[in-house]
Design goal:
474 residues; alpha/beta; Rossmann fold; Four Helix Bundle (Hemerythrin (Met), subunit A); four-stranded parallel β-sheet; four-stranded antiparallel β-sheet; 47% helix
Length: 474
């Protein structure tokens, strides 16, 4: 079997053939760090973290680069609103990103470059484009000349004429053509700036990713990924400036994740229909949030509702209960004097064929454009099969350990860590304490919400005169 992935450039699924055998050069667009990241961002980060994990699971050596945009109009605007230095704001929001990403079990990239660390390289890249006739300077700003790149529009499948029709005509515009885009912006009063051959200013948005790719992955990469909203203009412009600079195909495969809606409507800050990931993690378990974000194919739309997240919690709870059940069976066997502990499934044991079947279905789903929805279905099919075995057959220790190891292995590929007893106990006790505090201040809505959260995780509370006790749902 081989991995196939949907390439936004061709509009088709294609077999994965990397530049270097066994190695993947993978770039994913990271956050603009003017605030916490929202749930739509979280979906993108989780999706590409999972794809990276799966490529490694299949034996690839993955060099994964994800940038931080720490120079941007939104950063400047918010810093001015808060009365803080833009650099300090960006620094704090990068720290906040790592905290929230860790709560979702998103692994750090191989490299996390920042725009402010690459200014000299950005300037040299722009100078090369000017020298080769692909860019021009106007009043301290530099623009890419899209007419110099005949393939402009090949990713978004638009012609320059169609693009021009969508631009507002502005007689004050200093660009030669409406489709041209900024590589370097002349500084405005009160903005941070850097010295350049064209005067003081700062990089345009698109140039950073081209330069970071060149610095950390080379002129050609295997996979470039981002949200669907980045296809145009961001990724289209990346292709133009990168390929004009190198004369080579920039990326072999372009992956774009689908949108995340909130209660059936497009997520929008202007209408208040959005969720900050940090706010959600304050009241919901990170494992369940990640499990929910993987419940649909990464290219398809995903609709967030409280009910959908609750269903994800309940589904993950079924898997957790299976692992606890296996542990109970293992403990019972260990206590028997006539049992010799054996690690791993042996040829001919019941688990051998079952595990092969479950793993094959999981791999087939993930090989087909990283279909996590079908991969999760394969895990649930395995849970049902293993539960049937536990109820109807006398299993060996080798069988039990093989089943357990398989489920943990497949969850790990999805970035879902095992729920360890000590960690679970600490989380449950903390929620019970919070519930008691809520009841003391007569916030019964929050107290009931905490009870429901625990119930969704398969935990039942019993209030007694001696305090609140908890147990697993049978």
């Amino acid at each position: 079997m081989s991995i196939v992935l949907y390439n936004s450039m061709s509009g088709e699924k294609e077999p994965l053939q990397t530049i270097e055998p066994g190695k993947v050069r993978f770039y994913a667009c990271g956050p603009t760090v003017y605030h916490y990241f929202h749930l739509g961002n979280a979906r993108m980060f989780v999706a590409f973290d999972t794809i990276r994990r799966y490529l490694e699971y299949r034996g690839y050596d993955v060099r994964f680069v994800q940038n931080f945009t720490d120079v941007d109009d939104r950063i400047i605007q918010r810093a001015n609103e808060l009365g803080v230095n833009p650099r300090e704001l960006a620094k704090q929001n990068i720290a906040d990103y790592f905290a929230d990403a860790e709560a979702l079990f998103i692994r750090p990239a191989t490299v996390h470059p920042r725009v402010t660390e690459c200014i000299p390289e950005i300037i040299r890249f722009i100078e090369d484009l000017i020298r080769d006739g692909h860019a021009y300077e106007r009043n301290g700003s530099v623009y890419f000349d899209t007419s110099s790149f005949p393939e402009y529009g090949k990713l978004s499948h638009q012609s320059p004429d169609d693009m021009r029709a969508g631009y507002r005509i502005d007689i004050q515009d200093e660009k030669d053509d409406p489709t041209d885009f900024a590589l370097w912006k002349a500084a405005k009063p009160g903005e941070e700036f850097w010295q350049s051959p064209w005067g003081v200013g700062r990089p345009g948005w698109h140039i950073e990713c081209s330069v970071m790719n060149l610095l950390y992955l080379g002129e050609q990469i295997d996979i470039h990924a981002g949200g669907r909203d980045l296809i145009f203009p961001h990724h289209e412009n990346e292709i133009a400036q990168s390929e004009a600079h190198s004369g080579k195909v920039f990326a072999r495969y372009w992956l774009h994740n689908g949108t995340l809606n909130i209660n059936g409507e497009k997520m929008s800050k202007s209408t208040g229909n959005f969720i900050m990931t940090r706010d959600l993690l304050a009241r919901r378990d990170g494992r369940s949030v990640r499990f929910f974000l993987l419940s649909a194919h990464y290219r398809h739309p995903l609709n967030y509702t409280e009910e959908a997240l609750t269903q994800a919690e309940q589904g993950l709870g079924r898997i957790d209960r299976l692992l606890r059940s296996i542990d109970h069976h293992l403990a019972a066997l260990t206590e028997r004097a006539d049992v010799v502990p054996v690690t791993g499934a042996l040829p001919g044991t019941t688990a051998t064929g079952d595990c092969a079947k479950i793993r094959t279905a999981f791999v087939a789903a993930m090989d087909d454009d990283f279909n996590t929805a079908d991969a999760i279905s394969a895990i649930f099919d395995g849970v049902r099969l293993i539960n049937t075995r536990l109820e109807s057959e006398r299993l060996t220790m080798a069988d039990l350990e093989a089943y357990r190891n398989l489920i943990v292995e497949l969850l790990d590929v999805l970035g879902i860590p095992e729920q360890h007893a000590a960690q679970l106990e600490a989380e449950v006790e903390a929620l019970i304490q919070e519930r008691q505090s809520a009841r003391a201040r007569r916030d019964f809505a929050r107290a009931d919400e905490i009870r429901d959260i625990l119930k969704h995780r398969g935990i039942i509370l019993e209030d007694t005169p001696q305090g609140t006790r908890w147990s697993f749902e049978s």
